[in-house]
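Reviewers of the previous submission asked for a worked example of the structure-prediction workflow described in the proposal, so we include one complete record here. The input consisted solely of the amino acid sequence. No template or homolog information was supplied to the procedure at any stage.
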Amino acid sequence: MTDLDLATTRRDITDALLTALERRHEVLDTIVDADNHADAASAIAALLDKSQLGAEAILDMKLKQLTKDERRKNQAELDDLNTELTFTLAERPASSGDTLDLRPFDADADADLFAVRTDELGVAGDGSGAPATELSEELSQAAARVDNEEAVWLVAVEGPAKVGFVFGELTHGEVDVRIWIHPDHRKHGFGTAALRKSRTEMAAYFPGVPMVVRAPSA
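From that input alone, the workflow returned the following structure tokens.
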């Protein structure tokens, strides 16, 4: 987990907890009316306009966190995180990752997206930094690495829109992870969300292998 990813996660949770305490009567009514844990989390997220991660933290909150002293600590942490981070969840709503999905790359269906990425960066898709070759050759080589379990290419999708890529390349016992977001979808938090989602995906494809983010999201 990168420092940015960790700070963003902490701020989402801290902000959600403080909002829940301010609106504790509404939150309690929402929990009591929910049929189960999943319904309660979804209802809290909708009620407070917070991320699913924040809603889960609210449900897991301990009673001692209701005290004034704990609330002051939460507010101090939130103030520090707001100083550290230059964007808010409202400004980059996609950063929560609630609505972003990752799916395997399809060389035929996703060639158009990869072409945009290659035109912008001008380098090969394998993370080597070498100049890009012909698109068909790039895609063929990627398919071979995926088949040999040496790489994983994922497409980040938000509803029907393809917003970017997550590239995972197995190199010297580590998974080099790179994220590229389409220029039309930047500054919304998709890079942060894709990085969050990629941890689970990469762990499934490469169990026990360290994940190293070589380039930050665009």
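The first strand starts at residue 100 and ends at 104. We consider this example representative of the routine output the project will generate in years two and three.
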